[in-house]
Design a protein that fits this description.
single chain, 30% strand, alpha/beta
Length: 138
């Protein structure tokens, strides 16, 4: 049985550039590096950067993305830091909670989000998506 998300691995085209982005801009902790990769972390998250010559820096057109949590008090400062680093925004926020959608140097779609599943479900109960059903434990 699954117990949670173990780690994320992102294919990157330039390891040094991506390592600098995740370390310096997003402030993940570097745990280990090697010729073709790096392990970084945040509390509860293990991220692997893996050098891949097949990786294109063009973002995909679908909505697949990876969201990082942050406190509401830190949101404005964090977004200002991303904008100062000329990070590209890829979408406007259309849902509950403050969010900033941005691209990493390889075009991976990322999000900085204030809120959690409980706050999202509460907002959806007030204004459900088309066809939405809730599965409460009873």
């Amino acid at each position: 049985m699954l117990t949670g998300l173990n780690h994320l691995t992102l294919a990157v085209s330039d390891l040094n550039r991506s390592l600098a982005f995740y370390r310096d801009v997003l402030q993940l902790r570097v745990e280990a590096t090697w010729d073709a990769g790096a392990y970084l972390s945040l509390p509860g998250l293990w991220l692997c950067l893996s050098l891949d010559p097949l990786r294109s820096s063009e973002p995909c057109t679908d909505y697949t993305h990876y969201a990082f949590s942050l406190n509401a008090a830190d949101f404005s400062t964090f977004v200002a830091k991303l904008k100062a680093a000329n990070v590209q925004e890829w979408r406007d926020n259309r849902s509950e909670g403050a969010s900033f959608y941005f691209l990493d140097p390889d075009g991976h779609k990322l999000e900085a989000h204030v809120g959690d599943l409980a706050s999202r479900l509460a907002a959806c109960r007030q204004k459900p998506y088309a066809g939405m059903r809730f599965y409460d434990e009873s």
